[in-house]
From TrEMBL:
Gene3D superfamilies: FAD/NAD(P)-binding domain, Succinate dehydrogenase/fumarate reductase flavoprotein, catalytic domain
Protein name as annotated: Pyridine nucleotide-disulfide oxidoreductase
Residues annotated as domain FAD-dependent oxidoreductase 2 FAD-binding: 8-498
Pfam families (alphabetical): FAD_binding_2
InterPro entries the UniProt entry points to: FAD-dep_OxRdtase_2_FAD-bd, FAD-oxidoreductase_2, FAD/NAD-bd_sf, Succ_DH/fumarate_Rdtase_cat_sf
Amino acid sequence: MPTTTGYDVIVVGFGAAGAAAAIEAADRGARVLVLDRGYGGGATALSGGIIYAGAGTAEQRAGGYDDSVEDMRAYLEQEVGDAVSDETLQRFCEQSPELIDWLKRQGVQFRGGPVPSYKTSYPTDDFYLYYSGNEKAYPYARHARPVPRGHRVLAPGMSSGKVLFEHLRRSAKAKGVEFVPLCRVHELLSDGDGRLCGVRYRAMPANHPHARRHRVLTKLTGKAGTWLPGLVKGAVEHAEPLWAAAAVDGEAHARAVILAAGGFIHNREWMAEHAPEFLKISPLGTPGDDGSGIALGVAAGGMTDKMGNVTAWRFLSPPSAFLEGLTVGRDGRRIANEDLYGATHGNVMMREFGGAGWAIYDAPTWRKVKDQIREQTQLFQRLQLIYLFTLGHKKASTIEDIAVKNGIDPSGLRRTVDEYNHGIRSGAGDPAHKEPDLCPPLVTAPFYSINISADSSMFYPIPGLTLGGLLVDERTGEVAHRDGGTVAGLYAAGRNAIGICSNSYVSGLSIADCIFSGRRAGAHAAATLQSASGDRDQL
């Protein structure tokens, strides 16, 4: 078994959290080794590349938006809840502008300026700043002044996440960080005092004859896997024997280990145990999001929390006119105000309505949706709209008929529609408090429906990811020990750890937390090593 020494910090996982940890530690003089079971990037490279940031970033100021630590915190308190302490949330908000500046120093580019005048789940290439959460929706807007905080990495289409990670990868390499791909850590090593001192792993040599074929199969598990989970399963089944036949054992030693290996959305057993109501959603991430990093932490004495928290994304818009309909469950009851962020609305549907729901529209709204497509959508969104406007909807001449066609209780749907229309016509407003400019009466036949259920169609999936993980010391990122204190030399970051977004997700909050927590772990690990080195020098 080859043994590698000479490192100060080993990072397990090379997505946003792992890259941030590696860069921060290297900047502070640490010799860093990064091990990843894939080729790097993780869920970050598959994402839309949104960073949730505020408190007065340069991009906000360029768009004429005045934000403050207080405003940002007032909003995030509603999303974060008890996921982290008040002190940690305050620190996250205070450091938010500097987080964007830090990314810029790694080569990442952003653009300020105007935001879309309509609500969208992901902006067109005309916009790189937008309202990426619930800022303008009820009840959030009642407690915090709405400000746009979704900072999209400057790149065309859906390549922003890929471009973000590529800048982080290049920065890490330039700072001397060593990277070993196709490497699976299966054991953490500790010294006689119980301090972490390294890892055992199996890795496929990059020059192995199977490596090229393995890489091709791995690429099939990327973004297409969100739409075609079966493709991921098939690719993994073919790639796994190649890796197993080629992998060799190895061991690496260091004074600190940082776990940053992602969540567990691809671990069906864990999902069934911790979040069975979310089993029908489409896994968002890579096959490496199997909980292996969390399991390593638990084996070392760590403990987990919020393992049942999952974010499920049912975005209705764009086009924004899709928010003007009503979403209901099988009994015809309203799910929630449709202008909520897609994951907030989706989680209500998953937890309170069994993952089943329908969006109901009348003729004028249906026409309005079509009129907005060109201005408001990206190519990948238009591909989904092709399905919705062909096979993905139903049509009927009455509310009762559209209910029957979908298996919805007709009297329940009629009651919901009548209550909504009465509120609009009487001036009282929408009973669910949707924004007034998204509330036309729903009265004109024909009526249309879209099945927004978790299992509605492979062409209209609900993607999602897990939010729970290892408990950590929020000042340092060290993994909390089940017997008290921390596991000496062990850190966790990103979706391996409890963090800012562990109760509620909005676009950009997970990557922002990955950068925040990754830098925290890398900085403390490096500082601790320097302190220990100084103590030895004085002896």
